[in-house]
Amino acid sequence: MTRSTRQMRVLDLISKHDIDKQETLVEMLAAEGYKATQATVSRDIKELGLVKALDGNKKYKYVCHAAPKDEGGEYKLYGLFKSTVTSISFAENIIVVKTLPGGANTAAALIDKMNYPEVLGVVAGDDTIIAVIITKSAVPGVIEKFYSFLD
Question: Considering 8, 16, 92, 105, which has the largest number of Cβ atoms within 10 A of its Cβ?
Answer without folding.
Answer: 8
